[in-house]
Amino acid sequence: MLSGLLIVLLPLVLGYMVPVRSGQLLSLINQAVSGSVYAILLFMGVSLAGLENLASQLSRLGGYALLLFSITTVFNLAALWWLSYRVALKAGHSPVVKDAPTSKLAAMLGSLMLVGVVIGGVALGLLLGPLVGEVLFTTADWLAEWVLYALLVLIGCQLRNSGMPLKQILLNRLGLAIAATLALSSLLAGLLAAPLLSLSWNEGLAMASGFGWYSLSAILIGDQLGPLMGGVAFFNDLTRELLAFILIPLVIHRHTALAIGYGGATSMDFTLPVIQQHGGVACVPIAVVSGFILSLLSPPLILFFLSLSS
């Protein structure tokens, strides 16, 4: 339903309207965002444990996620490679950034920890499910939904206080071009993947609209299409981030737009230190703008496409 779109956008807008001038409070908000992501993924793991024939369902989940990821990656890389030759954008060199990952393994460790949280949720669900019953899985879904609303408020605050005014974002043509290229190529991939995943065309578009925002796509997709497809969306978007950590150092000096754009929404947070470390400070505002726009696009697009089935 379109009302679901408003329910999700409202906390995001409310959070964006709150100015935060205290550095300490902003630090607490950042920590709360991180904690909320872990909580959502834990609850998602518990919900997955409630699936019938779990082993076969997890095998199906892995196959679907690999299929969607492969198609999306081919479309994204082809489109961003084309854009790299169309725009005059070259990475520079910069000293090692403070607190930036010092190796690809270190950069990917946080992402791998998220997988561990989902696995822990599945284990918890399998352990407590026989004791508590169906109420456990219903409660997990309910808690995940409310944690998501809190997360959207906090993310709205982060976006408002990112130091990047909307005017500057809208005037950054390179950031806009990268975000538009990534979004359009992802949606085309979703259309192609839909019949292969036994989904309708609009559900395929919704699956492709996460743009790397795995915590959001997992819960929104899972709420409408079930925990199996929520898991597919999660692993599709998380694998994007893992591959981005590997691609950025390898291609940023030859195909700068590709390196910045492939991380999708994560280019304004998780993959940003790697972009800055290997591409220089000139890449930072472009990456932030691209990630910012994709973060704003993702929730309404997912819910709009899902609403077409209602």
UniProtKB/TrEMBL annotation:
Keywords tagged on the record: Membrane, Transmembrane, Transmembrane helix
Listed transmembrane segments: 32-51, 63-85, 105-128, 135-156, 176-197, 242-262, 283-306
GO molecular function list: L-lysine efflux transmembrane transporter activity
Membrane is among the record's keywords: yes
Taxonomy, superkingdom: Bacteria
An example Gene Ontology CC term for this record: plasma membrane
Protein name in the entry: Lysine exporter LysO family protein
Species, as recorded: Vreelandella alkaliphila
